[in-house]
Amino acid sequence: MPKLLDSFTAALLATVALASLLPCYGPAAQIFNLATNLAIGLLFFLHGAKLSREAVIAGAGHWRLHLTVLACTFALFPLLGLLLKPALTPLVTPELYLGVLYLCMLPSTVQSSIAFTSMAQGNVPAAICSATASNLLGIFITPLLTGWLVAGHAGGAQNMGSALDIVYQLLLPFIAGQIARRWIGGWVDKHKALLKYVDQGSILMVVYTAFSAAVISGLWRQTPPSALAGLLAVNAILLGLLLAITSLAGRKLGFSREDRITILFCGSKKSLASGVPMAKVLFAGHAIGAIVLPLMLFHQIQLMVCAMLAQRFRQRQLAEARA
């Protein structure tokens, strides 16, 4: 189970602090950007190599649940981001709310969605399938939504160039990993703990380069403490609404308790692992520190809240079993 305050969160905070105090620029930034691009390619190659077809097939038949999760992830979330914009924009800067809109268009998490579903004794095979499908479809849907819904905001609109970059940097390595799975799949499955460091390391590299560029362009001078406090409130409001809606939708649509748990945890979360690398591609040429800051905060809030919810579900199940 993901911890409330884990070592990766501490590493993220340390990386932001390092970029704020010692940002990279000039030739060093170019070299670091190249290394970051290579790390992102390796990340998606390994994601393709470790994807088990058997796990996907096991939960693929539960199409009503999967459609519900995908609707929450790629329709309800962006819709709320747009509808709440007039009310929430005064709490943050325009650049930060652009990051909030981008957050709303991202796919669900994989590891933590499955972990929380398992802890809460939900439908784990369906969670594996839904979370995996969300991330696969997100490679296509997130760039399209970004280009459509945030067009004209800070030059963040998607164009053909950024679409091709997504294919080259993310999709092709993923496909190559799927093809290579027949030869390296066993090794990948045995070294998942080692692969976690590739996953997290690539995110830290992107965060460092992103925040270095943002600091140089004046991110902290342009982001008052009140805007950071407002961003926490905006993220909490979004997560609270999605948790409430997914819980209600599961009941209204007649899903079992196990399926409702899966919908709750898979339909209300957003992927830091996919979102940060995608931001680097979609917002290329722009300082993306303000774009990924809402996602970084949302990531930690969702872990803390969902960990408490999963623990409550588990305790309730145990209490009912003893009764």
From TrEMBL:
InterPro entries: Na+/solute_symporter_sf (IPR038770), Put_Na-Bile_cotransptr (IPR016833). The chain crosses the membrane at residues 29-46, 67-84, 96-116, 128-151, 201-220, 226-249, 288-310. GO terms for cellular component: plasma membrane. Keywords: Membrane, Transmembrane, Transmembrane helix. This is Bile acid:sodium symporter.
